[in-house]
Amino acid sequence: MSNKIVVCITGASGAIYGYRLLQVLSSMDFEIDLIVSSSGWVVLKQELDLTKAEILREFPKVRLIPEKDIANPVASGSRLIFYRGVVVAPCSMSTLSHVACGTNQNLIHRVCEVALKERVPLVLLVREAPYSLIHLKNMLEVSQAGAIVMPASPGFYHRPKSLQELVDFVVGKVLDSLRIEHNLYRRWRE
Ligand SMILES: Cc1cc2nc3c(=O)[nH]c(=O)nc-3n(C[C@H](O)[C@H](O)[C@H](O)COP(=O)(O)O)c2cc1C
What we know:
The chain has 190 residues and is an alpha/beta fold.
């Protein structure tokens, strides 16, 4: 199984999910291609006080790809087929909409489109509250096209005691959907 993965962070609330995913995948020695949208950087700063320089310092092995680099190898199916998957965490309603419509305004939209056409696992960790009919229709559209729509909503049956445990539950669910083993949350009856 490939240890290459694309992680995208967009401008939805919940930048901590993308950040934690980077920590976990890095600790598992995944080769990570990271694409952060311009709004994603704004929310990383707003919610976690993290800048591009700090992300690069903390994750020196991560390959940071500019969202405008539409000629990057991951924009091509001939390269993306060798990846374990593409995760957008968190995924804004705007990015969801572009994926649902097949319109490409940046490399994140393109990578998602390629993942769908090549049947590379695509996980969209969507975040908005409440959902409009348009959001729901877009989720149905991408789900029918093969994406996994993951809600950024943790369970509580494992009795979380901290924010970290709530975040790890959701990140664990993302990893589950890619069949990546982890110990981020206690499974039912474990
Ligand atoms: C602090 C902050 C929080 C936001 N939270 C959300 C959110 O939870 N969901 C969402 O769809 N958009 C949210 N937005 C709006 C998106 O950032 C905006 O729609 C943007 O155009 C998304 O672009 P992107 O998908 O290219 O990142 C938020 C914006 C800011 C500044």
